Amino acid sequence: MDISKYIDMPLLYASEYGLKIIAALLIFIIGKIAVKKVTALSRTLMLKAKVDNTFVEFLESIIYFVLLIVVILASLNTLGINTTSFLAIFGAAGLAVGLALKDSLSNIGAAVLIIIFRPFKVGDTIEAAGVSGTVKDINLFSTIIEPVDKSIVVVPNSSLIKGNITNFSQRTQRRVEHVFGIGYDDDLQLAKETLMQIIQSDERVLTEPAPLVAVSELGESSVNFVFRAWVETADYWDVHFDMLEKVKLTFDEKGISIPFPQMDIHTNKIEGKQ
């Protein structure tokens, strides 16, 4: 019995496939390093070109995974594996995963729309999907919003796209608007002049567009004034709350009443009945 052939065959296979395995590993390791460098370079170039940071992160992820797949296929091809069949398998697997994760893919599609059309960006104050706050992060699946109470709300991107989005940061100016009511027995002209003086005395209120105080309604129990003042977006909430306080204190000083809902109950006493 010739034992030499059983010894030579493993050596033959080791010498033949060992080099291929080493070459495949080298291609994968060097390729992965190159992918990271190319991805980092592309990020740097996009940031220098002042591309939106959200869009940069999105493209960076796509570039990394596409190039990594190319490196993996090149490594497999070096081993002598037919990558065409793998592409077919990946395609079928991708279809199955896509059907299973259709909701997640809809979030990715929504993220692409947000990045392209930019209804809002990181740092904007928005109201959408029943949540109001500052946008802290936009990723492929969700948007992170921080309300005024400093909690964190994770909103799926598809939910944002489906409804209305109110962006409070797109404009440099915002309008503070209130409705104030006075009693029918109060001096209407005095109330109107008082409201305008309150607006004009606040340095944060802009002269253009011009502020407005006007009678908006003769209500059931009050004469209502519409009160409008334009301010810088950063001053909006401070002015909003300050105006409420100033109006109440000034009305009290000048004896102008602010009607509130009340109910009068009248009782009648009938003679001879207990």
CATH topology term of the largest domain: Helix Hairpins
Q: What proportion strand?
A: 15-25%
Structural class: alpha+beta
CATH class of the largest domain: Mainly Alpha
Largest sheet: 5 strands, antiparallel
What overall form do the CA principal axes indicate?
A: elongated
Radius of gyration: 35 Å
Average pLDDT works out at: 83
**Helicity level, as a percent range?**
40-55%
Overview of this structure, please?
The protein is an alpha+beta fold and 274 residues long. It folds into 3 domains: 9-100, Helix Hairpins, CATH 1.10.287; 120-167, SH3 type barrels (Roll), CATH 2.30.30.60; 173-254, Alpha-Beta Plaits (2-Layer Sandwich), CATH 3.30.70.100. It is 52% helix and 19% strand. The strands form 2 sheets. It has a 5-stranded antiparallel beta sheet. Strands 6-8-7 form a 3-stranded antiparallel beta sheet, with helices on one face. A hairpin with a 3-residue loop joins β2 and β3 (142-146). It is elongated, with a radius of gyration of 35 Å.
Summarize the structure.
This protein has 274 residues and is an alpha+beta fold. The protein has helices at 4-48, 53-78, 83-100, 102-117, 157-162, 188-200, 236-254; strands at 125-128, 131-138, 142-146, 153-156, 165-167, 173-182, 212-218, 223-232. The strands form two sheets. It has a five-stranded antiparallel sheet. A three-stranded antiparallel sheet has the order 6-8-7, with helices on one face.
